[in-house]
Design brief:
Strand order of the largest sheet: 3-2-1-4-5-10-9-6-7-8
Helix content: 25-40%
Strand content: 15-25%
Length: about 290
């Protein structure tokens, strides 16, 4: 598989995301590229020390050295676990924004996945619109995995893919099927309807089959959930099924916008504990 790229700004959430990415990289037997974009992070502090006497060096040099040490220490922590088979690591530090560095690095190493934490985001609306990761999500040509602060890695047994049957995205599901195959997980395609209606259900089921026939994976099922709030319907279903991963399309079509509006009014939903894999819609790139 192509390398996994993971960004860190040394916050607890981003560090948690790097450990999640590390586990995933070992399971997939692929390279992990850890990067830090200095323009997107506050100056780090290692310990409280009295002001040093001027050395005549540029002010930014000491800060850069601290960032590099933090990156080295984090990489060393990732390598400490006794793995059966080691993987390759690479670290990058650059004076660039998260968006600039992530886009350039994903293209340079031909990454198959970009992993980010969601420090401070209280709902999906904030993740997709008001965090430093928002611009990366909009522009990324590869899948993005958003890891919440409370998420810990565990083998994937149940993957829920929330879809809109009225949308026609063009998706590359290679990563999704690779993850599912690795853990022999079930992929459940989920559609939330606001009203309980019996008529038209057979047509919806046919749409499910047509929409997912290109997914080359045997353990696939479909479910229609009835709930006036899309977010609540997805959240309750994920909890009921003990889902390990939620998958969505990153393009904000009407269904996702409705979902995000719901997120804004909800607390402690799945975005606080469940990793979200965002698949890019390549149709919008045409």
């Amino acid at each position: 598989m192509e390398p996994i790229v993971c960004g860190t700004d040394f916050t607890l959430s981003s560090i948690n995301a790097t450990f999640y990415a590390n586990e995933l990289a070992h399971w997939l037997d692929t390279k992990l590229v850890l990067f830090h974009a200095t323009k997107s992070a506050a100056p780090p502090i290692l310990v409280s020390e009295p002001p040093a006497q001027s050395t005549g060096q540029e002010p930014g040099r000491d800060t850069e050295a601290i960032r590099l040490k933090l990156l080295d220490d984090l990489l060393h922590s990732l390598q400490k676990k006794d793995w059966t088979k080691p993987i390759a690591y690479e670290k990058r530090l650059q004076n660039a924004s998260l968006t600039e560095m992530a886009q350039a690095l994903v293209q340079e190493v031909q990454a198959g996945l970009l992993v980010l934490g969601n420090e401070g985001a209280q709902n999906l609306q904030e993740v997709l619109y008001y965090t430093t990761a928002a611009n990366v999500i909009k522009a990324s040509p590869c899948p993005i995995l958003i890891v919440p602060p409370k998420a810990t890695f565990r083998p994937l047994h149940t993957i829920v893919f929330a879809i809109d049957l009225e949308d026609r995205p063009r998706l590359d599901t290679a990563l999704l099927t690779a993850l599912a195959s690795l853990f022999k997980a079930e992929i459940i395609f989920l559609y939330v309807l606001p009203n309980l209606v019996e008529e038209g259900l057979e047509g919806l089921k046919s749409s499910f089959v047509n929409r997912t026939k290109d997914v080359a994976y045997p353990h696939v099922s479909f479910h229609i959930e009835f709930n006036p709030r899309i977010e609540e319907g997805i959240s309750q279903y994920c909890r009921r099924k003990h889902a390990d991963l939620l998958v969505m399309v990153s393009q904000l079509h009407d269904y996702t916008r409705h979902l995000i509006d719901d997120f804004y009014h909800q607390d402690q939903s799945f975005h606080t504990y469940l990793p979200i894999l965002l698949l890019p819609n390549h149709r919008k790139l045409d």
